[in-house]
Design goal:
Elements lengths: L17 H13 L3 H13 L3 H4 L4 H4 E2 L2 E2 L2 E5 L6 E5 L2 H13 L21 H14 L9 H16 L2 H8 L4 H8 L1 H12 L3
Antiparallel strand pairs: 1-2, 3-4
Protein name: Tyrosine-type recombinase/integrase
Organism: Shewanella intestini
Keywords: DNA integration, DNA recombination
């Protein structure tokens, strides 16, 4: 799969909005892209960085043909343990993918097609995320693997305004990091400004 990008754009990657996630899911279901659908769903639920998500093995999320409801995982970057939920939708997509791919407990959840005994690469994952964005008519340079980490965290904050909950979900140690990560102050300031009629 070739990955094309208009221009390199650094900085914080945008999260997907809820309706965009549903559109991506629908497209992947129509295309019967079981691996991509399972990857999308688990990336959103887990809120893990790609360095933690891609090396996951079947035994990390399941046992005896049963997908766990919750998983504890120690993040590579921070060495901090986080917990994440695996929703029913994600459990179903993972189970379908694991069955069709005939994955064993010690296999990577998302094995590389080209490199034996390796998971898909970061660049391939980034390519997929950008393709999902591009298929929606979005500027793919604004999206990347971190978009997946930010998506559910942003939705949780938008619904609850509970910054501490998001901090725990992401495994951050400082509220300031979570605030910057979500762009909370700017977004709240803009919403407040829009609501005041002068």
């Amino acid at each position: 799969m070739m990955c094309f990008s208009k221009a390199k754009r650094s900085g914080v990657k945008k999260p997907f909005r809820l309706e965009e996630i549903w559109r991506i899911r629908t497209r992947l279901e129509i295309e019967n892209s079981l691996m991509q659908l399972a990857l999308l769903n688990l990336a959103i639920d887990s809120k893990l960085r790609s360095s933690d998500l891609l090396p996951l093995r079947v035994c990390d999320v399941s046992s005896q043909d049963r997908i766990f409801n919750r998983v504890k995982h120690i993040q590579r970057k921070t060495d901090i343990e986080v917990q994440f939920e695996i929703t029913t939708r994600t459990q179903q997509s993972l189970m379908k993918w694991m069955l069709i791919a005939s994955l064993n407990p010690n296999d990577f959840l998302f094995p590389s097609q080209r490199r034996k005994q390796q998971p898909i690469s970061y660049s391939y994952y980034r390519c997929l995320v950008r393709k999902w964005a591009s298929n929606l008519g979005l500027d793919s340079s604004f999206y990347g693997t971190h978009s997946m980490r930010r998506t559910k965290a942003t939705l949780v904050y938008a619904k609850t305004k509970n910054i501490r909950a998001v901090l725990l979900l992401l495994g951050h140690t400082k509220v300031d990091n979570t605030i910057r990560y979500l762009g909370v102050e700017l977004e709240d300031a803009l919403l407040l400004s829009e609501s005041i009629d002068c």
